Structures are given as C-alpha cells and as structure tokens.
C-alpha cells in the first residue's frame, strides 16, 4: 500500500533533531508549522514559523515535541485540545506525557537519531496500540522504526542508538588518526576508514538477509587469519578495553537518560 504522509504536522523546537525531522517531513510533502521562541524566521525551506503555541495548535492535529527534556511537560501543558503528541525527549516517560497533555490525547515516546536526515535513522518508540499506525506513518522513509514492548527499555534505546552516532564518529576519527600516525594523509586515512565502516555494515547486512542468525563474530573470524595482521590488531583493541568501553558508554548514556526523567 502506498505511503500517505500527514497533510499537516506541528512541531515545537527546530534544533538539530527537530530540524532533521522537519526536513524529512517537508521532503515527503507534509505542510509543517513550527514554533520555536529562539528563532525569528524559519531556517528550513517549507516550514512555516508561527509566533505562539496558540497559533500552532490551530494548524495541526499531530505535534512533534522536540524541546529539551525539562521543557516537555510545560510545553504540553500549554495545549488546550486533545491531539497526537510525539515526544523525542530523552528520559521523559510515557506517563509524564499523558499526564501533561490535554485529557484524551494520544501520546508517543520516541527516540530517533540524526541519520534519519539521510533516511537511515534508527528509531525506537513506545506507545499504545492505537498510536502505532500514526508513528509508523510519521517516520516512514526515515529509517528503521522499532516498537519497544517495555517502556523501561526506552532509556537503553537512548543509550544505544540515540547516542550511538557519536560513538561511531569517535571510532571513525580514531581510525583516521591512526592512519595519519602511520604515514597516510588525513584525507586518505579518513576516506579509507569511512568506506571500511560503511562497506563492512553493508556486507554484513547482505549476509544476514540470507542467514538470519549469523553472528558478527562469525564473520569477524572469516577475516582473522592465524598469526596475521588482524588478530594482532584485535588483540590491541581488547588490551585497550575496547569492547568494555563501548558497553560502558551505552550503560552510562542509558543511566543519564533515566536521570533526566527524574528532573
């Protein structure tokens, strides 16, 4: 069945993530109205900036709340009519959204990540059954959307995929600097590192489409010869605590998401 985008959507906040979602929606043909008190004019072509939340409320029936966590509840409290509210704030629970929004509203808690602007986002969301179709329709074409069955796991989504692009970019920079240290130019090293990361993921995804239970370590073993260069490189990674550091990063970001919800 063909995708039918929402005719109009309202958005509160046009920061990095809100702006990315706005661009994706406009590209699909959605008429987007936005309120952001920090802006005097819209930085995104196709987005109509309004001067008050009252004005925004008159324009749509679905609103993306893309403000900092401490502002989500006050913003929802300004709305007067029930609507569909989609919050992208870390740490703000589904219950907090329902309690703050006008009675009778439909609420969704979602954690997107920035690659959605390139249609490669990884988004986990939690909502009641009646909101699933709205959520899938809103984020259609922006990447992978996964409904999370237990809301308590949304903080883990934040720690893993929400913050994940920063981990990947840090790894990318470390690889590029390593090549630079060994004598490659920065541009040569960065180009090789980017293609290695992207190419490996495409290769593994293709393999897994044919063998659904294939584990990353199985494929890693294919390119790890006894006594070769790769096993020595992997040994250095593990002696440096690489795997533990990645797990710790996800854990700490998850904990921080929980802390944000407590205020």
Automatic annotation (TrEMBL):
Main location as per UniProt: cytoplasm
Transmembrane regions listed in the UniProt entry: none
Enzyme kind, highest EC tier: oxidoreductase
Domain Pyrroline-5-carboxylate reductase dimerisation: 151-260
Residues where NADP(+) binds: 66-69
Family matches, as InterPro entries: 6-PGluconate_DH-like_C_sf, NAD(P)-bd_dom_sf, P5C_Rdtase_cat_N, P5CR-like_CS, P5CR_dimer, Pyrroline-COOH_reductase
UniProt-listed PANTHER family: PYRROLINE-5-CARBOXYLATE REDUCTASE, PYRROLINE-5-CARBOXYLATE REDUCTASE 3
Stored HAMAP family: P5C_reductase
Family the entry assigns: Belongs to the pyrroline-5-carboxylate reductase family.
Protein name per UniProt: Pyrroline-5-carboxylate reductase
Organism: Leptospira ellinghausenii
């Amino acid at each position: 069945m063909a995708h039918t985008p929402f005719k109009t959507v309202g958005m509160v906040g046009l920061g990095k993530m809100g702006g990315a979602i706005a661009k994706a929606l406009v590209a699909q043909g959605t008429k987007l109205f936005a309120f952001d008190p920090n802006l005097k004019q819209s930085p995104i072509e196709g987005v109509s900036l309004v001067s008050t939340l009252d004005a925004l409320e008159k324009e749509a029936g679905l609103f993306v709340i893309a403000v900092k966590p401490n502002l989500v509840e006050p913003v929802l409290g300004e709305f007067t009519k029930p609507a569909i509210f989609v919050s992208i704030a870390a740490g703000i629970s589904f219950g907090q959204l329902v309690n703050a929004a006008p009675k009778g509203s439909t609420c969704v808690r979602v954690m997107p990540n920035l690659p959605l602007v390139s249609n490669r986002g990884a988004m986990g969301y939690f909502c009641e059954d009646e909101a699933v179709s709205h959520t899938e329709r809103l984020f259609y074409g922006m990447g992978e959307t996964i409904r999370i069955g237990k809301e308590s796991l949304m903080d883990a989504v934040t720690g893993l995929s929400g913050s994940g692009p920063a981990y990947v970019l840090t790894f990318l920079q470390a690889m590029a600097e390593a090549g630079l240290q060994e004598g490659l130019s920065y541009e040569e090293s960065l180009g090789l590192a980017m293609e290695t990361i992207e190419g490996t993921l495409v290769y593994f995804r293709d393999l897994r489409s044919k063998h659904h239970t294939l584990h990353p370590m199985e494929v890693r073993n294919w390119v790890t010869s006894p006594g070769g260069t790769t096993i020595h490189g992997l040994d250095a990674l593990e002696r440096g605590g690489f795997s533990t550091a990645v797990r710790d990063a996800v854990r700490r970001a998850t904990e921080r998401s929980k802390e944000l919800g407590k205020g």
